[in-house]
Amino acid sequence: MSSKQTLREEAIRFRNSIDPFSEDVDLVVSEFFECLCPQAGQVVALYWPKGKEFDTGPLIEALLRNRVSCALPVMQKDSKELRFVRWDESIPLIAGPFGIMQPEINRDSVWVEPDIVVVPMLAFDRQGHRLGYGGGYYDATLAALRARKPVQAVAIGYSTQAVLFNLPSEPHDQKMDWVITPNRVQRHT
């Protein structure tokens, strides 16, 4: 088993033990707005939380209240690159691959390219590296988006997901521009 896989298993076990009420998640919303200054007309791609992932719901609500377009990822057959569909509470969610909730696609769906991508994580280090689930979807997506336009990558999570050592990094791993937790903001650009 690789060291990354061992770290991933430990990070999942640890993350699943975190009490979601142990930290003030609303601080992430205020820090996100203060640091990234999202504007009406921009598109922020987020994820719909699964299991014990950090809850993006309060951030989505705040963005929509401020007329910032939100989008959720949709997995594509035979591709690691995620595509994004504009989303608000009027659009139903359905279970996609791996049980991840995604917008129901129909003829009215609006495909968008985000300006800011909020990325899920299991752990993060002081260098802006995150440990994900190992599928490589966000790395492939960020690489493709960054080749086309400037995009800010933001990992959000609990402060206790920080590690004191450098996470293993491979050439295809995409570094985060920001890591925001209720107790800490790290900028890496």
Automatic annotation (TrEMBL):
The keyword Metal-binding applies. Its EC number is 6.3.3.2. The keyword Cytoplasm does not apply. One of its GO terms (biological process) is folic acid-containing compound biosynthetic process. Keywords: ATP-binding, Ligase, Magnesium, Metal-binding, Nucleotide-binding. GO terms for molecular function: 5-formyltetrahydrofolate cyclo-ligase activity; ATP binding; metal ion binding. Gene3D superfamilies: NagB/RpiA/CoA transferase-like (3.40.50.10420). Its cofactor is Mg(2+). Belongs to the 5-formyltetrahydrofolate cyclo-ligase family. This is 5-formyltetrahydrofolate cyclo-ligase. It comes from Micavibrio aeruginosavorus.
